[in-house]
User: Which sequence fits this backbone?
DNA sequence: GTACTTTGTTACAGACTATTACTAATCGAT
DNA sequence: ATCGATTAGTAATAGTCTGTAACAAAGTAC
């Protein structure tokens, strides 16, 4: 049994101290309490974790005084003996704030410590998508407002995470986001400066990975190995292996949209030929919608994915474009599964709204092209959350960090 | 700082006890001692790990009595003060035995605790490649002989690992190996039975991952994120992220050979169309060699890769086939890097012998197709070890397991 | 009300590491 | 050659964890 205590991004492996045992066990308990929807008693925790009952009591005391969990009155409906005291995550524990930008709007989301969404807000854009500084400043204004709203509900925001459609370095610098034209922009630094306060931790991350985190929580952490396809005009994949987000060497894994489907296909915005983006990106599918339809009436106020969904029922050329997209997605996701071996594919973001027209084609390609698919089938389905998954996931990262290592949040009083 | 104590393949997260602190620190020390080629003193370990000097002394005592490390006489060439006592890995510590099968031969390899290859043996095949039972029995005979050879050198073999060209379940059952026609055969069980003894741990693993492990050791664990292309008639990829082999949900990641290159390409042995295998597999390249050359003379006794290498200098059609292979490899590896983000590509196995004709094409495709390649270049080069990497890696897994968690090997006497 | 049963806590022992003070072994100047 | 300076390694003891065993608390069943 190993105990790798690593600092991310460094080959420095830290020594273990006794306090790390406690830190680990605190996290273990908290994860366990979070896992069950119903309150858990100390003795159930002891049985589930294998720790001794007195140890559980001591750890639980720390979590209680730290405000991370709450006792719920004794449950009297048992058979004999002293009734157990239930423990649940505290609704007033540290909350997370997620930020997100879409083609038409800026989004903020507040999630409390139980993982429940307490606030979800859409603000219209006042600047073009291609203006990074102004966009971040607007987001910071929304964030400040959201933090106020949270305070009014008795919540303390412990951190802010911004979702971005492209690879992010060191959870701060946006390297390249073709869909919005950002290139090498330190969104984290700008956001930190705009927020002013040093109270909250600021992070920036790829939206697909964040969406995967949200869907993982939505599944009550039952999904352990899956890939989450997220995006609208930029397609990315959030890969979760053994309950852990796969970040890659430098943090920019999951660029599914730029996997080659046809080596000699059309040229993508990234410069390469035949990227998945060119077949399954929202822009590629929209290109099949006749101009007359695009300009006409009520649909133009909907998001592109909804427009496509409505038109697919009516126009065969839209259905054909969706079939092409599905095939291309299937080929690329097949490559991903051959390489990384996950057992579930979630269609998220805009693709969750188009799942009806996509799943069959993707399923077929996977069945044909994945070596191991014949004896271990891969499940393909729409993600339960959908387009809001990235903001929610962004907010959840904050909560998740505290849950994984509560010792950083709890400042235990010395006796 | 988290301390994830997990059992692989299960969502059970174990509680931490004090003994795990020691186990972790023992591993930490051993890794540190292994990292430096020159002997390390206790005080250097203290500085490097951050542990207190007395703690180091106690841990080192355990490693010494466990026979994992050795003291080398004081180094007198220092300036002032008591000279430090050097510590190195013990050459007589637990050794590993690797087994491997190739088209023409069966291979065994013994590696001592320092990672040095002490024995490498090639035996001709006496049965067709497609006969799993006989092949395993032959390998067991070779293994027994090798264990004897090791004993004669004063080495104790702690475990045996068999390298297999295909996905392996639970480190024992071969699910599907197209190149040799094996399907759903529990090689681990057969090998355990044939070896008789319960003394040695038996494991079966994918050859590409094992090769990656060997190359990782050969780089003195300097490579932290890379992919290792390995194979001859079956191509696989061993993916290492942050110094850890990526195994995937069920253990069968890295099936690069069956990633789609041309959606409508020729049909592969696996049933799919346009697999990389069909362009870059050794069989595909060999198909370009004229029949006359294949039958003629001295070359036929060489391995296929050597044959191709020799003919490439003479025949343009062979060079063309290699160029095609390189392009296809570049496209597939590009997909891998877009998805997983590694910074180095090693051409191993047969491909290490053909690197001269492949690297440029692969490099070009990666530069064109990987989104992040423009600001963070990917290195492509021949792997230092080559075709023997899988057997050596197989033997190294045994040593590596003990090195990562020496506490299981050391049975510390109670005071 | 008494016995029984189950939950949670207190008191003390065992297993670690850190701190502090010590011993060991060498160099260099006198 | 001897004494100090310097560096390496080791006891002795304290602090921080968890585990074990005994105990207190709070119910049900009769």
Assistant:
């Amino acid at each position: 049994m190993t105990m790798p205590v690593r600092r991310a991004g460094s080959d420095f492996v830290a020594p273990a101290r006794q306090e790390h045992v406690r830190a680990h066990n605190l996290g273990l308990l908290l994860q366990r309490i979070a896992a069950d929807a119903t309150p858990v008693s100390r003795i159930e925790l002891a049985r589930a974790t294998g720790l001794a009952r007195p140890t559980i009591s001591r750890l639980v005391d720390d979590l209680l005084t730290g405000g991370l969990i709450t006792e719920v009155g004794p449950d009297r409906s048992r058979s004999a003996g002293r009734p157990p005291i239930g423990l649940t995550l505290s609704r007033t524990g540290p909350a997370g704030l997620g930020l997100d930008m879409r083609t038409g709007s800026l989004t903020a989301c507040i999630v409390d410590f139980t993982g429940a969404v307490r606030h979800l807000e859409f603000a219209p854009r006042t600047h073009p998508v291609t203006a990074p500084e102004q966009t971040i400043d607007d987001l910071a204004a929304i964030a400040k407002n959201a933090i106020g709203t949270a305070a009014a509900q008795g919540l303390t925001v412990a951190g802010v995470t911004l979702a971005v459609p492209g690879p992010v370095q060191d959870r701060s610098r946006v390297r390249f986001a073709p869909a919005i034209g950002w290139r090498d922009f330190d969104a984290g630094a700008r956001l930190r400066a705009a927020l002013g306060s040093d109270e909250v931790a600021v992070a920036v991350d790829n939206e697909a990975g964040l969406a995967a985190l949200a869907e993982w929580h939505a599944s009550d952490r039952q999904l352990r190995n899956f890939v989450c396809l997220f995006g609208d005009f930029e397609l990315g994949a959030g890969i979760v292996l053994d309950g852990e987000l796969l970040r890659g060497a430098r943090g920019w894994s999951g660029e599914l949209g730029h996997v080659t489907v046809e080596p000699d296909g059309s040229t993508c915005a990234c410069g390469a030929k035949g990227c998945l983006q060119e077949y399954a990106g929202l822009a590629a599918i929209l290109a099949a919608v006749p101009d007359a339809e695009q300009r006409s009436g009520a649909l133009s106020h909907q998001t592109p994915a909804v427009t496509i969904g409505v038109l697919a029922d009516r126009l065969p050329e839209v259905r054909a474009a969706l079939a092409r997209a599905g095939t291309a997605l299937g080929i690329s996701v097949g490559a991903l599964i051959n390489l990384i071996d996950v057992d579930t594919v979630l269609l998220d973001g805009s693709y969750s709204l188009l799942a009806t027209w996509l799943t069959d084609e993707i399923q077929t390609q996977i069945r044909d092209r994945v070596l191991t698919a014949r004896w271990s089938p891969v499940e393909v389905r729409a993600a339960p959350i959908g387009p809001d998954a990235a903001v929610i996931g962004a907010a959840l990262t904050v909560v998740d960090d505290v849950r994984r290592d509560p010792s950083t949040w709890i400042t235990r009083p010395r006796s």
